[in-house]
Amino acid sequence: MKRSTLIHLRIPFSYYLSPIFFFAVSLSSSPDWWRVWLMFVILHLFLFPATNGFNSYYDRDTGSIGGIEHPPPVSDELLWASLAFDSFAVMLGLCIDWRVALAVFVFGLGSKAYSYTKIRIKKLPVVSWIGVVAFQGAFVFLISYYAVNDVTVGDLAGKGVLIPALLSSAFLMAAYPMTQVYQHEEDRRRGDITLSILLGIRGTFAFSAIFFVMVMGGFALYYHTHFRMMFALLFLAVQAPVLVYFNVWFFKVLRNEARANYRSTMKLNLVSSTCLNIFFALFYVMNMK
């Protein structure tokens, strides 16, 4: 495999997408740990990298993209590698059951529609926003929860599962536009009008801030009503670094929009993902006692 292909698969970038999976695991009272590890591998080592590689192949970015500050030129090998990774993900899904494999296959189709030239929903700012938050949020939560627990598909419609699934998507509603804030020039060059372009740089920050406050309140309410107030307060406390970083960065951007750059965005992703994963780990350990 070429070095450029491996870089564009962006396997380390999967860490930023891991909180949804760990959210589902943290709410599992008796998870099958063999399935937990297998599902982690399916999503983070195969499915998400396949999506990254496919998108990179059709985007052919020359500027910074998620996880790569200076992307190398792509080759046809990247397309075939991304399709192979998709196939591996589906085959591993069959080791759990056919429903997981089918869900993985559907996710792969949805991710391809995002950037494939003849469909490319990335050109549709609101549609792409809804599609990404639905697939990478609620859909990933539901297939993860199903995969690691002894439940039926019907059980996923229960409020104990459906509410956190919707919270997963709500979180991405706030986070996703921020991933586009440094790519305006590159997206315009290709003719893609993203939600962040529609909102503008300052508008993107304001939009995400409003959604972020709403989502934090939603998570706190969920933990308070379904578990204990202690967990609601712990969640807010662990998210404090995200709030501090976001606000400090926002004020810098208000003075100079050039501050809305790749490195600052990746730092926000790192802080946010790490804080969420820390909370989910703490919650699981404390709630199991």
Give the secondary structure arrangement, pairings included.
Layout: H1 3-9, H2 18-26, H3 33-59, H4 76-94, H5 98-115, H6 125-148, H7 159-175, H8 184-190, H9 195-199, H10 201-226, H11 229-238, H12 240-255, H13 262-287
Helix pairs in contact: 1-4, 2-6, 2-13, 3-4, 3-5, 4-5, 5-6, 6-7, 7-10, 10-11, 10-12, 11-13, 12-13
Q: Can you tell me about this structure?
A:
- The protein is globular.
- Helix 6 runs antiparallel to helix 7 (159-175) and helix 7 runs antiparallel to helix 10 (201-226).
- The model has no long low-confidence stretch (mean pLDDT 93).
- The longest helix has 27 residues, at 33-59.
- The protein has helices at 3-9, 18-26, 33-59, 76-94, 98-115, 125-148, 159-175, 184-190, 195-199, 201-226, 229-238, 240-255, 262-287.
- With 289 residues, the chain is mainly alpha-helical.
